[in-house]
TrEMBL record:
Coiled-coil stretches: none
Record bears the keyword Transmembrane: yes
Record keywords: Membrane, Transmembrane, Transmembrane helix
Source organism superkingdom: Bacteria
Protein name: Putative membrane protein
Membrane-spanning parts: 54-72, 77-95, 101-118
Keyword Kinase in record: no
A Pfam family assignment: DUF1304
Length: 119
């Protein structure tokens, strides 16, 4: 149950990131992501950020659906794979964008993954 709770928190975090990327003001995005507000006001950048947001939203929704409806062995395996995916993407983000991504997104997914493995 602990592993499921951690996994659900990772899913909720992905949905929160989607909201930040798709719907929040450039001021809020600049504060959270550490990107210059002028850059975030460029139409193409806003479109790219919203596109990234839709992926985070889909990932978050998928984690929540799997956690709620499929928490037998297959669900545990699937949630584990999703956590591995998030850790890999967070490491890539840490290497290419901001090291904080590994801590904010990667660490919760890694802890959830370990909890899933040992549950």
């Amino acid at each position: 149950m602990f592993a499921l709770g951690l996994s659900m928190l990772v899913g909720l975090e992905a949905l929160y990131i989607m909201i930040l990327e798709m719907f929040m003001s450039a001021e809020k995005q600049a504060a959270v992501f550490g990107i210059d507000k002028k850059v975030l006001n460029i139409k193409e950048v806003r479109s790219l950020l919203a596109n990234q947001g839709i992926y985070n939203g889909a990932l978050g929704a998928l984690i929540l659906v799997v956690g709620i409806f499929f928490m037998a062995n297959a669900g545990k395996i699937f949630l584990s794979l999703l956590m591995v995916y998030i850790v890999i993407v967070a490491l890539y983000g840490a290497l290419t964008v901001n090291k904080k991504i590994a801590l904010v997104q990667g660490l919760p997914a890694l802890v959830a993954l370990l909890a899933l493995i040992f549950s």
